[in-house]
Amino acid sequence: MNSTVKIPMKSLFCVLLGCLGWALAQASPTALNDGPAQPRVKIGNGLLAGTTAASGVRMFRGIPYAQPPVGRLRWAEPLPAKNWSDVRPADHFGDRPMQPTLWKDMIFRSEHMSEDCLYLNVWAPAVGRDLPVLVYFHGGGLIAGDGSEPRYDGEAFARRGIVVVTVNYRLGVFGYLAHPALTKESRHHASGNYGYLDQNAALRWVQANIEAFGGDPAKVTIGGQSAGASSVSAHMASPLSRGLFRGAIAESGSLLSHEPVKPRSEGERFGVEFAAELGAKSVADLRKLPAEKLLAAGGGTERPWPKSIIDGYFLTEQPLEVFFTGRQAEVPLLAGWTTAEVDYHSLLQDEAPTPENFVRKLRELYGADADEALRLYPAATAAEARRSATDLATDRFEAYRTWKLIDESWKSGGQPVFRYLWAHVPPSREGGASASAQPMGAAHSSELPYLFGSLKIIPDSAWTAADYQASDMLHGYVANFVATGNPNGEGLPQWPWFQASIPKVMVLDSNPHTTADTHLRRYQFLDTH
């Protein structure tokens, strides 16, 4: 394929205007190598001193890309980081965002948790210029996660000549609280979506500074998994992020689903109720509360409230409508999901996956259309019911919304779309197969250390030769995509574009291969329900 990505002049003009404030605050960056052990670069804010890995990769951790969102900047649009006069050490990760402890697979290398969390990390090759760039947004449901996690380590990509940036952004109530008073004080008449605005600020920082690390601001690919993938789709739909990237990677997630993004009014309603629960009579009162009290009150997964909203600034309309009418960012897309994102418990809770229980759940969910659902998710035996319950739980959780992103992108995006299904099941941390934990396939997030080539730094895992083979394959495909907009390359099985006439899916495991999409009717069924 022609790997050149066309960016309309209007988009380029918007990018220049959007980046102007950041560029003025950050003068032209310059690379200053000050020895192999402590490489230095000069960015707009000042000098950074990083570290060097044994491989020669340069690492710069904990770089502030915006001012700390504390005090009056709690629930405000991020402002450019302030300059510093001395050499700033960039040898440790910045504080992770405020978040509850939710998932055991999140391993943080950051030492502390704080509201002062708007930091990013850069891995760069020892030498090079005009290099492709991967900016990656971590997952965690927009309520947890951190760019320091080992599974997002960028060293392996940097060894392939790619500059990698991982980004921290505000989470939970700190990142997505809307309130009428916040809307009124905003010069954009918007509130909520602060976490997305943080990500946008990081992309603008990349445009202004990535040349100092050898990267090319015209060769930026954004990527993310789960909430990070939803973030990718949000930036594809947002006019504020138009032109800031040339490619997109979405793993298990998007904002395109049967559940529309909530309007700002609904977010504001929650904000008013939230303030009342805390006895806060004003936004000023909310800003005086300790971060720990806000975190405790904000809740985790058990308290549903609108995070992504149509705020009128970052998101001006439904993302699905943007994609349906072909007004999203026109960039190549690599997207897919895992074979068993979640298991049957997500659908049946504590009930056994028997045919009777499964059919009863289908009737509860789909009423008169339950028989049609049963034809698509058969349950004649206990084994079949378990498989179908896992499939339906997976489809409802992430597969459908990712399929919808793929489906709308190839219809209207004007750029190649590459679809995958991650099928490789990793070993359990105790060693041996993880069938007891995920008996029906590869679980949500399981592809991450394979994609980043970071298996060796994930603790307590008994990796096998097949795992490293699967990692080499996936890592190679993604590196090619970041470099050229096409995952295909020497030594890898051919990955075809996704097309309606030949709906092929690339099954990714230790033996990657293409197969026909035999589950299309499942996604079409969910599309109408």
What does this structure look like?
By secondary structure, the protein is α/β, with parallel strands linked by helices. It has two domains: 1-329, Rossmann fold; 332-529, Alpha/Beta hydrolase fold, catalytic domain (Rossmann fold, 3-Layer(aba) Sandwich). It contains 17 helices and 17 strands. The strands form three sheets. An eleven-stranded mixed beta sheet has the order 4-5-7-9-8-10-11-14-15-16-17, sandwiched between helices. Strand 2 (40-43) and strand 3 form a beta hairpin. 54% of the residues are buried. Residues 1-34 and 431-438 have low confidence and may be disordered.
Strand and helix map with partners:
Elements: H1 9-25, E1 30-32, E2 40-43, E3 46-49, E4 51-52, E5 58-64, E6 88-89, E7 119-124, E8 131-137, H2 155-159, E9 163-167, H3 172-176, H4 180-185, H5 194-209, E10 215-225, H6 227-237, E11 247-251, E12 262-263, H7 264-277, H8 283-288, H9 291-298, E13 309-310, H10 319-324, E14 333-338, H11 345-348, H12 355-366, H13 370-376, H14 382-412, E15 417-422, H15 448-452, H16 465-484, E16 504-508, E17 513-516, H17 520-527
Helix pairs in contact: 1-5, 12-13, 14-17
Terminal Cα span: 37 Å
Spatial strand order of the main sheet:
4-5-7-9-8-10-11-14-15-16-17
Mean pLDDT: 91
- General shape: globular
**What is the count of distinct domains?**
2
- For the CA atoms, what is the radius of gyration? 23 Å
Main β-sheet: number of strands, strand sense, barrel status?
11 strands, mixed
From the 3D coordinates, which CATH architecture of the largest domain would you assign? 3-Layer(aba) Sandwich
CATH homologous superfamily caption of the largest domain: Alpha/Beta hydrolase fold, catalytic domain
CATH topology of the largest domain, what is it called? Rossmann fold
Roughly how much helix do the residues carry, as a percent range?
A: 25-40%
Name the CATH class of the largest domain.
Alpha Beta
Strand content: 15-25%
Unreliable stretches covering 5 or more consecutive residues? 1-34, 431-438
Instruction: Let me know the number of strands.
Output: 17
Our count of helices gives 17
Helix and strand content put the structural class at alpha/beta
